[in-house]
Specification:
The protein has 120 residues and is of the alpha+beta class. It has three helices and seven strands, in the order ββααβββββα. The chain has a single domain, classed as YaeB-like fold. The longest helix is centred in the middle third of the chain and has 17 residues.
Length: 120
């Protein structure tokens, strides 16, 4: 069974991350804080904004994917697949976080995210 933990509590949404996945969001963010503070800042700002006001209506920051019910946040050079919790309102679940990559590899990452979504 897929495990999740609260990452951000906001005015509009509570954001959870999957736990024990190949690149959980908090781990990647911690690594980025040391290796690339600028990318870390972009990701944290976007996640905080989503918690407070919901996902942006800007395809440069958030967009639908080719997988039904799966979307992705786009902070800088990284991608964070997410979905709305099927049984709880105002809950977003982040599957994992990965560096922007070529389309073939991105499809594999999104398929992984979709499989996690289906587990919930």
């Amino acid at each position: 069974m897929l495990k999740v933990e609260l990452l951000y509590a906001g005015a509009k949404f509570n954001i959870y991350q999957t736990v024990g996945t190949k690149a959980d969001v908090l781990t990647v963010l911690s690594d980025l804080e040391q290796s690339n503070p600028s990318e870390h800042e972009k990701a944290v700002a976007l996640l905080a904004s989503v918690a407070q006001a919901g996902p942006p209506f800007n395809s440069q920051k958030s967009r639908k994917t080719s997988f039904d019910g799966l979307l992705e946040l786009k902070p800088g050079g990284y991608r964070i697949p997410y979905f709305y919790h099927p049984n709880l309102s105002a809950v977003i679940v982040l599957t994992h976080m990965f560096k922007k990559c070529p389309p073939k590899e991105q499809t594999k990452e999104l398929k992984y995210a979709d499989n996690l979504r289906k587990q919930l």
